[in-house]
Each structure stands twice: as structure tokens, then as C-alpha cells.
Design a protein that fits this description.
The chain is an alpha/beta fold. It is 37% helix and 17% strand. The chain has one domain: Alanine racemase (TIM Barrel). The two termini are 19 Å apart.
């Protein structure tokens, strides 16, 4: 495999080209390096290559990986967050990309207030309408924004979505999903008189289209680090927050890139 520095040069060139096509400033696009199932050595490699944001799918994985990793990166949770994992998650991550319900907004605020945290969040929106996708419906977004804006410990930065996976030769089919999220964001900024500058959208297969449609954070793993190590799924029983029952959770069961 090529050195990460060379791979990153190619990815950054593709981002610049996409920005040029869309009349955007490439400086407005940042890479979230998705290190799911890779070890702390890959986090160090990413940091040394100039990547400043590490994205993880699981609270449990970050809990062992982050303490063993190089200090410096900003850690983002990009996978689904269970309410009983909010407390440990707030101790690991600065930003949550996949807040998918009003109940989760309220839970994050309650725990953040208790421990003095001030996380950034994105609302995950299911723009494709696929039942297999997480995220709130577009019609539910205004209510979630109202809740988030009323939470003193939370900063609502914007929105996240995932497009359907399609073969490379059909990647243009993802464009309406990304354009739809941008248009929704623009409408919500007008409605609430607030700025929501972040759009987390685009992964290895479709990040060029996402950048053309306004992505500011692109979640890249495979294109940077190659295929993930084969990891046998595990089940972990974790009590989560005090007073709440734990539940079994596949450690590496959801891929966000």
C-alpha cells in the first residue's frame, strides 16, 4: 500500500478539484479520519500525516484506543450513540455527528450539565428514506433544533447524513441526498436565524459528490488506510451510566465509511 502521505495528497487533490467545480474554498472541507478497527498506530500515522480529526464508530473502541494513542487529535463520534453510553462518550469525544432524536439531545444536555461538558453536535437526518439508515426524518428536524438551541451545554454545529451505497459507476445517484441536506440546512438557518455551518456527508465512495454539494466534514477510512482488519464481532455487556441496565453491543458492527 502507498504511504499515507501520498494517498492523502491524492485525496486532497480530489477535494480541491471538487471544490473548484462547485466554486467552493477547499479550506472549508476537513477530513475526519475514520480509524474503526485500526489500532493506535494508525491514529499516530494519521496525526503525523497532518490529519487532525479522528472519527470512531463505537464508544467502547475509543475507550481503549484513545488512551493508547498520540495526543493532539480531536476525537469525533460518528456512529450511533445509545443513551446509556452518553456519559462515557462525553469523556472521550468533543463532537457527535449522529444525534438522531430529541430524546438523545435532551440526554446529552442532562449529562453534559452534570459533568461540565460542552459538546458539539450534529443532527443525523435520513435524507434517503431508507429504512436501514439511522437518522431522523427531515420533518422532525425543526423540533430537534428547537431542543438543541435551548440546551446551554450543547452547540448545534449542523447536520449529518449517509447516502445509499451504490457502485462507483452510479455514484451520481447520491447527489440528491447530499444536495437535500444542504438545502435543508439552508432552510433551517433562515427559519431559526442561526448558523449551522457543518455538513458531515460523504465517505470513500462518494466524497467527491458530497464536496460538490457542500460537505464540510468528509468521513474517510478505507481510501486512507485500506481495507479494515477482519475482526470477529464481540458482545460486551456494559452497565453504562449508573442506575441504567447495560445491553449487549457488537463492538465493530456499524461502518460509517
Amino acid at each position: 500500500m502507498k504511504a499515507l502521505s501520498k494517498i492523502l495528497e491524492n485525496v486532497e487533490a480530489a477535494v480541491v478539484a471538487a471544490c473548484n467545480r462547485a466554486g467552493r474554498n477547499p479550506a472549508d472541507v476537513e477530513i475526519v479520519a475514520v480509524t474503526k478497527t485500526h489500532g493506535p498506530d494508525v491514529v499516530r500515522e494519521a496525526w503525523e500525516a497532518g490529519l487532525r480529526i479522528i472519527g470512531e464508530n463505537k464508544v467502547q473502541e475509543a475507550a481503549w484506543k484513545k488512551p493508547q494513542s498520540v495526543s493532539g487529535p480531536d476525537w469525533h463520534l460518528i456512529g450511533h450513540l445509545q443513551k446509556n453510553k452518553v456519559r462515557p462518550a462525553l469523556e472521550l469525544f468533543s463532537t457527535f455527528h449522529s444525534v438522531d432524536s430529541v430524546a438523545l439531545v435532551d440526554r446529552i444536555q442532562r449529562v453534559a450539565e452534570e459533568i461540565g461538558a460542552r459538546p458539539n453536535i450534529l443532527l443525523e437526518v435520513n435524507m434517503s428514506g431508507e429504512r436501514s439508515k439511522d437518522g431522523m426524518r427531515p420533518d422532525d428536524v425543526p423540533s430537534a433544533i428547537e431542543h438543541a438551541l435551548a440546551c446551554p451545554n450543547i452547540t448545534l454545529e449542523g447536520f449529518m447524513t449517509m447516502a445509499p451505497f451504490v457502485p462507483v459507476d452510479r455514484v451520481e445517484e447520491t447527489r440528491p441526498v447530499f444536495a437535500g441536506l444542504r438545502e435543508l440546512r439552508d432552510a433551517m438557518e433562515t427559519r431559526f436565524g442561526a448558523a449551522f455551518p457543518r455538513l458531515s456527508m460523504g465517505m470513500t465512495n462518494d466524497y467527491r459528490i458530497a464536496v460538490e454539494e457542500g460537505a464540510t466534514w468528509i468521513r474517510l477510512g478505507t481510501v486512507l488506510f485500506g481495507e479494515r482488519p477482519k475482526v470477529k464481532p464481540m458482545r460486551i455487556v456494559d452497565a453504562g451510566d449508573a442506575g441504567e441496565s447495560g445491553e449487549g453491543d457488537g463492538l465493530f458492527d456499524r461502518v460509517m465509511d
